[in-house]
Amino acid sequence: MHIPDNYLSPATCGTLVAAMAPVWTVSVLKVKAQVKKRHETLPMLGIAASLAFLIMMFNLPIPGGTTAHAVGGTLLAVLIGPWAACLALTVTLLLQALLFGDGGILAFGANAFNMAFIMPFVGYACYRIGHHYHHDKLGLAVGAYLGINLAALVAGIELGLQPLLAHTANGTPLYCPYGLNVAVPAMLLAHLLVAGWVEVLFSLFVFQFVQKVAPTNLYQTPVKTHQRPWVYLLAGLAVLSPLGLLASNTAWGEWSPQELKQQLVQQHLGTHVPQGMQHGFQFDALFSDYAIGGLPVSVGYVLSAATALIIFLLLIRGLQRGTDTTK
Amino acid sequence: MLLKLANLCYDYPNTKGLVDLNLSINAGEFICLMGPNGSGKSTLLRILSGLATPNRGQYWFHDQLITAAYLADAQHRQRLHQQIGMVFQNTDVQLFNTSVAEEVAFGPRQLGLSAAAVEQRVTDCLALTACTTLRDRVPYQLSGGEKKRVALASVLALNPDVLLLDEPLNGLTIAAQQQMLTLLQRLRAAGKTIIMASHNFQQVQAVGQRFIIFNSAHQIAADVSADDLHRQPERQAQLMTL
Amino acid sequence: MAPTQPNKLPNWLTEPEPPLESASKATFFQRNQRHLRQLLTKLAQPTPVIQPTRWPIAAHINLIRLLIMVLLIAIINNLALLWCLGLILAGQLLWLPPQQLRTFVKSWLISSLVALIIVLPSYWLTGPATLLFFGCKTSLILANAQYYRLTTTFNDLLVGLKTLRCPDILIMTLAIAITYLRMLGQYLLLTLEALDLRTVASTKHPYQLIGALFGNLYLKSYAYALELYAAMEARGFNGHYVRAPQRRSHWRDYLSLSPDLVALILLILWGN
């Protein structure tokens, strides 16, 4: 499920990093609260990241003699809590991208969105519902299956949108060449039929083992306390930000076709406006215009991605001061 | 001749493991591998068990040359694993079932025995290692010494011809050490071959029949019988300080 | 041991075990052992990283360069500019020792080939131009990432991130992750080997075993976390990662960024 580089346009990558920024921020805050009750959560983040790495590299047998891999997003969420799982999986993906060449460097945000956000949270939500009705295992199974398939669906959409979002004048896609009609079924079919079930079996048996052997080592849901409103705000942003995926459409679509044509001519790309761009989409998304202050669109991409990163780092930095992480 | 090693060498990626080993072992011997930490005792046990194959030289078991190619065949490998059992130094890695009884039953269940025969083996092995009271406990929650005994029980249940033990007495009480050694001697008397790595001479000097002593250059420094060793007080003194 | 130990061995234990008739193809445990060994070797002795003595570049500049390069390649749709970026990289490769260069070329070719195979069906969808362009760009990105991995130690990466003012918690987590990747990997390998030694017939329920393996691994990692926290606290850990000795940025660090920046500026001018 790791999306390599050059399959997603930098705009999509930037948008997804931006989408992850609030998720990461809330996760850090939530984990800090968790650390106060269970001190070992802090080192556990790193150790869980290496555990996730090993899970992702382990070959699991499937009928027919070949093998598949599990991702373990749902399982980790159930074992160490969804927020900690989100951070641990993010670290795993970062390590894989930078040091092991698994998954792209620019596509890191997209991979984190699919595997460190959608998967653990969807999976954990299902598990909680199951837990509420005293069917932990059923909840986990449904969560694992839904989680990985939803992540695959979103990955398929991210990939499949590329030919629509970014292509040259004559319609040649610049990034992933497969449209929604190919990318989504390809991703979904593999996961619905095989990888989803592998994930379910893997998660169930590990969970069953831990539950039997050391039930106290499972993540205990914290008692609901009064939550500050900005937490909801950030969560809301996180939910809304996938819309930003389409932000580049707005940027493209907001130019008049004439303008676009002019730009394309300047870029020596072609002389007619592509069919799909004749009628731009109209979305009021967060980052609605990549072409800031007359700068070319490429600079806009860079700026928006950088801005998202800096906002995230600033948030972390600002919230870090004054609160002691260990006590 | 049960086991034979000829000019065997084993290298780890950046250090030596074993250098030019020559060794013959007969069925029914009780052998103690002695030597300082990192001298090659565990490496030798790994090679004997088939977990690692030598870089150079030969390893013969029952007149069969054991090579990577031979072990690539699942049936050969599994046959070897049935005949040679091993208790790891860190027994944590060896116990992965949810109860002690399940742990011991794991091996014999694969042997195609009836449910009653499997149950018999579990009961026997737990009794031999004095683990009967632990039967329904979770291996993960046992103490270090208890884990050692359960690990031995789970290996015995496969009825191996050769028992490899890596520091089996570590973490056991003095009484439990004594009982473990008595059991090993009884197994040897029944025809099993026991090869035990230890760096504590005091613990094993009473039971070992033959002492193979490694030096820090990963070679065999001495290969002496217990009788010969009794006539060499300076060597005994040297072994005491390992 | 309790004094209830019987004095006599059971009969089955005194007779040799009859050979088993079994045909098993449970090779995935073997395959996983192989993969784990490869990973552990890689972690234990990473390919010696070449530290250019004449032109040493600060860790964070290297990281920024990688990001700019990858971004540039992804944005640029002009063959001439891509060509220039390729040349910049090729120029850097010139400084690699021959052995390293061979390693680089080998793994780069393999990863490029894999990328090409994935995109091959698009030939029938969109024609050869996409295939060629996409192939070129992807392999160029892969080459850059590969070069970074080849010339950067894990510690350099941490120092770079630290200099770029990454939060302490992230750096600490990364450092723990890579350390424990080795320890957990080692543990998993030993568990697999122990399991292998007690496997004498084909495995009927592989997933149950895998569940037990990873359940154990999780419990082990939990135990490690408890130990590590105790150790951290004992050493007076206060939530701040120890500052690694940093080298001050020199003019040449920024100079080394210049080809990329020039390319970026060119692209902007061209774009306008």
TrEMBL record, chain A:
Q: Does the keyword Oxidoreductase apply?
A: no
Alphabetically list the UniProt keywords. Cell membrane, Membrane, Transmembrane, Transmembrane helix, Transport
Domain PDGLE stretches: 231-319
Coiled-coil ranges from the UniProt annotation: none
Q: Which compartments does it reside in?
A: Cell membrane
According to the record, the segments passing through the membrane are: 7-29, 41-62, 74-99, 105-126, 138-157, 188-210, 230-252, 290-316
Q: Which InterPro entries match?
A: CbiM/NikMN, PDGLE_dom
| Membrane disposition | Multi-pass membrane protein
Is Iron found in the keyword set? no
Give the species this sequence originates from: Lactiplantibacillus modestisalitolerans
Query: Which coarse location class describes where this protein primarily resides?
Result: membrane
- Can you tell which superkingdom this protein's organism belongs to? Bacteria
- Listed name of the protein: Cobalt transporter CbiM
Automatic annotation (TrEMBL), chain B:
ABC transporter domain location is 3-241
- Protein family according to the UniProt entry: Belongs to the ABC transporter superfamily.
Reading the lineage from the top rank, the first entry is Bacteria
Q: Taking the first listed entry, what is the main subcellular location of this protein, grouped into a coarse class?
A: membrane
The UniProt entry lists membrane topology as:
Peripheral membrane protein
Q: What is this protein called?
A: Energy-coupling factor ABC transporter ATP-binding protein
Query: Which PROSITE patterns would you find in this protein's record?
Result: ABC_TRANSPORTER_1, ABC_TRANSPORTER_2
Gene Ontology molecular function: any one: ATP binding
UniProtKB/TrEMBL annotation, chain C:
Short name of any one Pfam family annotated for the protein: CbiQ
What membrane topology does the UniProt entry give? Multi-pass membrane protein
Highest taxon listed in the record's lineage: Bacteria
Q: Which keywords label this protein?
A: Cell membrane, Membrane, Transmembrane, Transmembrane helix
Q: What is its main location?
A: membrane
Provide the transmembrane region boundaries: 63-96, 108-125, 169-189, 209-230, 251-270
Protein location: Membrane
Task: Give the InterPro entries listed for this entry.
Answer: ABC/ECF_trnsptr_transmembrane, ECF_transporter_component
Q: Which CDD domains match?
A: EcfT (cd16914)
Protein name, UniProt field: Energy-coupling factor transporter transmembrane component T
Q: What is the scientific name of the source organism?
A: Lactiplantibacillus modestisalitolerans
Q: What is the lineage of its organism?
A: Bacteria, Bacillati, Bacillota, Bacilli, Lactobacillales
